[in-house]
Structures are given as structure tokens and as C-alpha cells.
Design a protein that fits this description.
Elements (H helix, E strand, L loop, with lengths): L4 E8 L4 E10 L6 E9 L1 H5 L6 H20 L5 H4 E9 L3 H18 L3 E5 H7 L15 E6 L4 E8 L2 E7 L5 H11 L7 H8 L25 H11 L6 H29 L4 E5 L6 H13 L6 E2 L3 H4 L4 H10 L2 E2 L14
Helix pairs in contact: 2-4, 5-12, 6-8, 7-9
Bound molecules: 5'-O-[(R)-(carboxyoxy)(hydroxy)phosphoryl]adenosine (KG4) and zinc ion (ZN).
Amino acid sequence: MNKGAGYILGIETSCDETAAAIIKADKNAKQVTLLSNVVATSLSLHAATGGIIPEIAAREQVKFIIPVIQEALKVLKNPQEEIDAIAVTVGPGLIGSLLVGVETARSIAYVWNKPIIAVNHLFGHIYANWIKSENKTGIEFPAIALIVSGGHTDLVLMKNHKDILWLGGTRDDAAGEAFDKTGRLLGLAYPAGPQIEKLATGIEKDIYHFPKPLIGSGDFDFSFSGLKTAVLRETQKNEKLNNERISNICYSLQEAIFDVLIKKTFKAAKEYNAKSILLGGGVTANQTLKQRFELEIGNLKLEIPLFIPEKRLCTDNAAMIATAAFFNQAETDWQNISANPELYFD
Ligand code: KG4
Ligand code: ZN
């Protein structure tokens, strides 16, 4: 983008959300402005099956992609003229879903003769923090970023936009996945995270003391798969699984997962003298997690600002993809881009 201000069309189709967004960014902007943000989801089709069926997700992507992009483009008078670049998620994700976004982006880039920018979905979750909102400005480097979603739990050190170092991640289930899988054992529909948050609200005592795996491991790795067994054991006891017990289990589950996330994030923040802590991904929509992080900053008497995207930008969206493209990724053309479901941090 070599003009003063530019518009980027973002496209995200890595899983069960079909999303398109337009951001406006001045050349040396420290934050971007969100002009439109459209998200369609096939979530309700997956609720009954307890998880995402990739084939169904991909077919729904095909249905939604054009109307979603059309809707996002409505904020511009002449999109073909005004758009400077097209950003698209190339991975990680489900291959069938990713291909729908990538091939659509390639076609638009070809027909409109625009540059295209390949974006790593995980970077997208971090970059949701650079979208303008009323109370957040001034992210400073080095920053520690925690990505907690249904597919990933990763801690990264951002020295600057171009120097991003992976510190550790989950060895098995991601934090969101742990909520979804244990939620299923409790009879909650997919995705269970938001319901677990609701059910746990108002509970104040951790009765079950579920394991907090790797909490003292000294590294930045995570492991949440053992929580399934712990919750399963509780559900198999003779006591009736009534609402009160379910709520108590939800609370203890949140405590176990959040304690580990908080311990490791602050360990990384201290070790690398972080000037900002950034959270991103679906699980960071959880208000208890936000409060626990804020509380810990107070307890540790740290003066590190905490950044969490607006709730609607914590879960999958295309605004974060366009924003990551603006700050972090290189322009190429439609011939040099392809989906990569296994993409991770370099
Ligand atoms: O980032 P995201 O939309 O998709 C992935 O990239 O995976 O995250 C979805 C995950 C699901 O596992 C869902 O249960 C979890 O985020 N989630 C939550 C909450 N809202 C969504 N987990 C806990 N509390 C929430 N409020
Ligand atoms: Zn995601």
C-alpha cells in the first residue's frame, strides 16, 4: 500500500465461520479502523453433533462466501477502485474450508488486479488487538501474546511486527477444546465455552480441584487433555449430575485452565520484560478470564497494560486477518498463494 490511506479486504474461512471485513489503515498507522465486519457461521449445524464435521463446514463456506463478501463491501462506494489489497487466511485450519476463502481471494485478486496477502490465522488472533476501540491504544514491544482458541493454545514473544518468537504451546488439547470436550461430558452443546462461563458465574468455591497440568513445568508448554478424564470421573460418580453440580464442575474447570494460562503468561512477561500483554482467540471472550488477568496484574504489582480484543473480535473474524496483513505480512500476487492447513509459527 503506497497511498496515504488504504483499504484492505480480509477473508477468513479456516473453520466454521465465513467472514469478510474491510479495514482502513493510514500508511504509518498504529491502529486500524474497522469499517465492516461480517461473520456467518455454520455453528448451529455442528451443535447437534458435538463438534465440527469438516465436510459440512466446507459446504457451508461455499454457500456463504459470496454473500458475506458482498455485504462487507457495501461500506465502499466503488470497492474495485478503492480496495488496495486482499488478505486471506491460508492456515492453519480445515483444508476444505480454507480452500473456499483462498480460491475466492485469488479470483478477486486476479479479476481486480490487486495484490494478495497470505495470513496465518494465529497471527490474526493476536492482531485483533490493533483494531481501534475506545479504550485501547499504545501496544508497546516487547509484547507477550497468549492465543487461546478452540484449536490452539500458544504463547509468543513479539519483539516487533517482524520478529515473533514462539515460546510454547499445548502438547495435546487446546484450552477451548478442553472446554468443548468436557462440556460434552456434562451434556452441553458445542461449543461449550460460553455456556461453561455462564454456568460458573456466581460460584465462588473451587470444590473439585481439577489437575493443573504443567503449571510448574518451568517451560511455556500446556497440556489440557487430562481434564477430560478428571471430569469424566466426576460424572460417573453416583451423585446426581444436577445443575448445581454441573455449575460447580464448570467453575473448577475454569479455575484449573485459567490458573495455568495466567501462571505461564506472567512467567513469560517477567522473563522477557514485556511492555504489553496481549490476549486473543475465542476463549479470551470469557469475562472471568479477563478479570483473573486483571487481578493478577494487581497482585503482582505489575504495570504492564493488558490488551484483549472486543468480545466479537476474540472469536474468528476477518477484521483480524486484514489487520495482521497490514502490519505483518508481505504482498504477493494471486499465483503465489495457496492454503496450508498445517501452517504454524516459523
Ligand atoms: O477463536 P475461535 O473462535 O476459533 C478457533 O480458532 O478455534 O475459538 C473458539 C473456541 C471454542 O472452543 C469455544 O468453546 C471457545 O473458543 N469460547 C469460549 C468462550 N467463547 C468461546 N471459551 C470460554 N469462554 C467463553 N466465553
Ligand atoms: Zn481462531
